[in-house]
Amino acid sequence: MTTTEESATAAATGASATERFRADKTAVADTPPERVSMLAREVLSAIHATIRANQVSYAEYDALKAWLIQVGADGEWPLFLDVFLENVVEEVASADREGSKGTIEGPFYAPGAPELPAEATLPMRPDEPGTPLVFHGQVRSADGTPLAGARVDIWHCDALGYYAQFAPGLPEWNLRGVITADDQGRFRIRTIQPAPYQIPTDGATGALIRAADWHAWRPAHLHLKVSADGHQLVTTQLYFPGDPHNEDDIASAVKPELMLDPKPSGDGVDVEYDFVLAPS
Ligand code: MBD
Ligand code: FE
């Protein structure tokens, strides 16, 4: 482990994720007051019911206040919400969409990664640790037509579990790129296998996980946004069989359709995965 990566902290990661969210997701939903009122009332009623049913004390109420203040101070609202709520938002949003399954985006996407050709190696350090991984496949429309020039925006953490731009000391676009598929919608990406990801243990989200005696792990995963003209973009993640946390992902974002089938190849692994996009 390098010194730079050892210095990754919840505060640094959280601050970057909060800044990223503010920069990219400024659009505020134009929600009518009746809907705001209904949603806020339902959420508050659920909390009231929990307080009554469990006879919550003033000490516990104050612990909650202190914790909520700390989530913001650590910049961990994007992390906390994406880990514990986004999976249900994604489920509702994609319920009626045909084509490849999606899953949550999570807090560590960065738009504007380097543009790469259909056969490419992701930006990485000369001595990038990890098992070499070749990830290839084809992007097709729901009727089977190959989607020429489809775009595969891929990002993942390194072999120590750190994401470029959210942990200090990594090159800006390490293990991030936007691949344009060829005229048959095919792509071939050389990278390294990501490590399982542990939620930062030194921030407010980690404190909750510890206080509740949960575990802090996500299984190893590749993140992707796959898109093509005239089609709906799919945000997804792909997972590796045998990971101990495929069955108990803290972010509840694993689906059977998202499991890869890696084959040993040379000194690494080869995985093939095709995407099907729904017309827009
Ligand atoms: C991650 O890497 C991630 O993908 C999600 C959803 C939440 C926290 C860290
Ligand atoms: Fe991730």
For the record, the count of structural domains works out to: 1
CATH superfamily: Aromatic compound dioxygenase
Strand element count? 13
CATH class assignment: Mainly Beta
- What structural category characterises the helix and strand content? alpha/beta
Helix and strand succession?
Answer: HHHHHHEEEEEEEHEEEEEE
What small molecules does this complex bind? 3-methylcatechol, fe (iii) ion
Distance, first to last CA: 45 Å
- Give the helix level as a range of percent: 25-40%
Which strand-content bin applies to the residues? 15-25%
Outline type: globular
Mean pLDDT: 95
Protein name: Catechol 1,2-dioxygenase
InterPro entries: 1_2-CTD_multi_dom, Catechol_dOase_N, Cchol_dOase_actb, Intradiol_dOase_C, Intradiol_dOase_core, Intradiol_RC_Dioxygenase
Pfam families: Dioxygenase_C, Dioxygenase_N
Cofactor: Fe(3+)
Walk me through what this model shows.
The chain is α/β, with parallel strands linked by helices and 280 residues long. The protein has one domain: Protocatechuate 3,4-Dioxygenase, subunit A (Sandwich). 29% of the residues lie in helices and 21% in strands. It has helices at residues 3-6, 10-24, 33-54, 58-73, 77-84, 86-94, 204-211, and strands at 115-116, 119-121, 132-141, 151-155, 176-180, 186-192, 197-198, 217-218, 221-227, 234-239, 263-265, 268-272, 275-277. The strands form three sheets. Strands 2, 3, 6, 11, 12 and 13 form a six-stranded mixed β-sheet that branches. β9 and β10 (234-239) form a beta hairpin. Mean pLDDT is 95; it is low at 1-6. Bound molecules: 3-methylcatechol (MBD) and fe (iii) ion. Residues 79, 82-83, 104, 106-108, 197, 218, 251, 253 line the site of 3-methylcatechol.
